[in-house]
Design goal:
Blueprint (H helix, E strand, L loop, with lengths): L7 E5 L4 H12 L3 E5 L3 H11 L6 E3 L10 H12 L5 E4 L14 H29 L2 E6 L12 H20 L5 E8 L6 H4 L13 H4 L4 H13 L4 E4 L5 H8 L1 H12 L1
Parallel strand pairs: 1-2, 1-4, 2-3, 4-5, 5-6, 6-7
Amino acid sequence: MKNLRGKIVWITGASSGIGRELSLAFAKEGALTVLTARNVENLNRVKDLCLRWTKKCWVFPADLSETHNLKELVDNVLEKTGGHIDLFVNDAGVSQRSWAKETSVEIDRRIMELDFFSAVTLTKLILPVMLRNKSGHIVVVSSISGKFGFPMRTAYTASKHAVQGFFESLRTELVNDNINVTIVSPGRIRTDISLHAITKDGRPYQKMDKGQSNGMAPDLCADKIIRGIKKNKKEILVGGKELLMVYIHRYIPWLYYKIVMRIGN
């Protein structure tokens, strides 16, 4: 999918952060964009910006953690787009800042519902359309936390490991169906993800992590992701020097444990 002009692209988590910048970048490519997130006001701001570059942009607000409502959402989107989705980008998610010993299973389930089950549910609802059209591209924004464990992220990391496993397996199942699957694993990107991260009592963390504030600009991140999508890459790692942890974990595990245990203490 080297040329995105006129393609219908649905982005979740589109109201802020990476999702917002991806929405704008797709619009600049001439794609027809569908935007979904909870914050209607922010979505409409993104829509107004998208319409500077693209002919059409639709807003479909939704709380994706309410997975029982997602079939209706998909039906409504497909009705507006004429039953066609060329590219689906699942970016919606929430991070975590709490120790496992202090965090209830209810909080774990809340994180898993949005970060894993919403992506799976939406993908399974959209997949029949792509199979019928004999083309499509599914993109899921995971995290480098889907590659290794990290303190105060137990449920978040678990959800991203689950995302990695599900979409890697899905890719193998779709190899003969002309449907591509791309897993994006960002490192530290300068977004508000830490501000909105869930704490042990379910309230937002409301602090900007130092690593986050010094991270890659989200528009640069979005540009790198779109370049990878246009090349049909299976995996996209994007970030700064923190990406080294992926390779340290893979090839020098003793060093990974030494580093991460120090952080945990």
